[in-house]
Specification:
Blueprint: E1 2-8, E2 15-21, E3 28-33, E4 49-50, H1 56-66, H2 83-92, E5 101-102, H3 103-109, H4 117-125, E6 138-139, H5 152-163
């Protein structure tokens, strides 16, 4: 498999998208990162190959999302993480556009004990698919905008976009 990348302008800054190619067709998206995002690569790895066409569907859908024209992504995904993290990340996909859930509610939806809230928070914070897997829709137990790897101001902006208060 080959890891490919491209970049795109966005309201969050220049996003770095990476994916894996396994034959013909579009790349399976493995990461979307924003400038200054905690725990994420700021630049492509040396062995990644530039391939904008392979990631064009992701760029197109992210552009439509940022324009307020898309609420559900339909892309092949290939994030790398433990089975626990994968389970939490899949549960993110079920949070409806424009709504929020708490870390406890997300953990429960993923079949986790209420005592696993810190581990759930760690998995959410490690989500490699910024925006596509909507970790920005997860809030603190009291509804506060708690941590977001790309910054709380970006989280607020994404939630305002989804609530229709930006346009």
């Amino acid at each position: 498999m080959t890891t490919v990348f491209t970049t795109m302008e966005s309201p969050l800054g220049v996003l770095l998208l990476s994916g894996v190619l396994d034959g013909d067709g579009p790349a399976a998206l493995s990461a979307v990162t924003a400038p200054g995002q905690k725990g994420a690569l700021a630049e492509p790895a040396p062995d990644w190959e530039p391939d904008a066409p392979a990631l064009a569907p992701a760029v197109e859908q992210l552009g439509a999302y940022f324009a307020g024209e898309l609420s559900v992504f339909d892309l092949p995904l290939a994030p790398v993480g433990t089975e626990f993290r994968q389970r939490i990340w899949r549960a993110l996909d079920d949070i409806p556009y424009g709504t929020t859930v708490t870390y406890g509610e997300l953990g429960e939806a993923a079949g986790q004990s209420p005592r696993a809230v810190r581990a759930v928070g760690g998995a959410v914070g490690a989500n490699p698919l910024l925006v596509v897997r909507p970790c920005h829709r997860v809030v603190g137990a009291n509804g506060s905008l708690t941590g977001f790897a790309a910054g709380v101001e970006r989280k607020r902006w994404l939630l305002e976009l989804e609530r229709g208060t930006l346009f």
